[in-house]
Amino acid sequence: MTTVRPRTEQDRAKVAAGVHALDTQVRNGMLLGLGSGTTSHWFVRSLAERVQEGLDVVGVPTSTATRDLALELGIRLADLNDVPPLDLTIDGPDEIDGAGNMIKGGGACLLWEKVVARASHRMVTVLDDTKIVATLGRFPLPVEVVPFGWVSTRRHLARLFADAGLGQVRITNRMRDGELLVTDSGHYILDAHLDAIPDVPGLAAVLNHIPGVVEHGLFVGIADAMVVGHPDGSAEVRTFR
Ligand code: 5RP
């Protein structure tokens, strides 16, 4: 197993958040949802070190990438279908506001991430301090759609944004290696460049009504707390409820 070390200030902040989450949120015997993305993967690496020291946890991964990393590092895993509600999920946001609402899905894992978070008694998000914003929307909002009729679904989305008073929103197709990116569930991702989302719960509710939309990256009322890390290695917990 190769040891990966943080190289940038932002990575040091991500590591600090993960370690503080381990110290303050994770207990022996927990069933743990394991998030996706770089911050979550730093957390998984720190978790693996604790497991080697004797911590007993079982993880449920939110992506095939996190599954592969956890297995490589020797963390025991379970299928979500085979376990009771999880004690805790630890996952990272792309953006988070003061109320704990988040945009997620920058790594295209939003569907499994939302399912796992919702299957957990608590969800705690880990982040470096650059992810905190006054208003969500600068980060493009990922929307996961079924391949069938996806161009029509994209038109429907554009109409919905216009009807919601958000204007002519640019929607881009998420690509990887020159092809449409295919998610772990076989879907596509559309990214909506909204700039600012004035009514996050309102938009989250209507997005779920479009046929062809499987899930979207607005996580409203899901995070119970956030663990914010800083480049100097410090971190703190802020609770939302
Ligand atoms: C993946 C996600 C990630 O959790 C989110 O993109 C944050 O990633 P990172 O920690 O790399 O900034 O939602 O779908």
From TrEMBL:
Enzyme nomenclature, EC number: 5.3.1.6
The UniProt record lists the keyword Isomerase: yes
UniProt pathway: Carbohydrate degradation; pentose phosphate pathway; D-ribose 5-phosphate from D-ribulose 5-phosphate (non-oxidative stage): step 1/1
Alphabetical UniProt keywords: Isomerase
Keyword Transcription attached: no
Active site (UniProt): E113 (proton acceptor)
Chain residues that bind substrate: S36, G37, T38, T39, D91, G92, P93, D94, K104, G105, G106, G107, K131
Gene3D superfamilies: 3.30.70.260, 3.40.50.1360
Domain of life: Bacteria
Pfam families: Rib_5-P_isom_A
Molecular function GO terms recorded: ribose-5-phosphate isomerase activity
Alphabetized SUPFAM superfamilies for the sequence: D-ribose-5-phosphate isomerase (RpiA), lid domain (SSF75445), NagB/RpiA/CoA transferase-like (SSF100950)
UniProt signal peptide: none
Catalytic activity, as annotated: aldehydo-D-ribose 5-phosphate = D-ribulose 5-phosphate
Family matches, as PANTHER family: RIBOSE-5-PHOSPHATE ISOMERASE
Assembly notes: Homodimer.
Entry's family note: Belongs to the ribose 5-phosphate isomerase family.
Biological role: Catalyzes the reversible conversion of ribose-5-phosphate to ribulose 5-phosphate.
Protein's UniProt name: Ribose-5-phosphate isomerase A
Organism per entry: Pseudonocardia alaniniphila
Gene responsible for this protein: rpiA
